[in-house]
Amino acid sequence: NLLAPEDCERVKKRHDFLLAQTEDLEKAIDDLLGIISEANRQIEDNFLKTFAEARENFRKVYSVFFEGGQADLILTEEDNPVESGIEVKATPPGKKINSNTQLSTGENVLTAIALLFALFEIKFYK
Question: Which residues pair with 87 in a beta bridge?
Fold first, then answer.
């Protein structure tokens, strides 16, 4: 085949081009994974900072609303805070509560309002 050297050269150029494209794509994938990892880290840091503020504010506001008592916000999965649920614990003064279902309707409402005020305090006082 007299055209074999030309075909070989053409195929080699195409192979080199595709190899370069593959390397570019692999580098882009690595860069994107790095960006995603950094973004996830920043999201987790910001969430934990905001959660700590909300938790502290909730404790204070709850104590003011109920003139005592204890309240807390707890992450259900501390090892994965961004996807974790948040549990609200509330104990009015003079009561021993095992679950929030034991709170009266009024106590539930005041607890929810205390949580809203705690979150508003983060938003408006920054």
Answer: 74
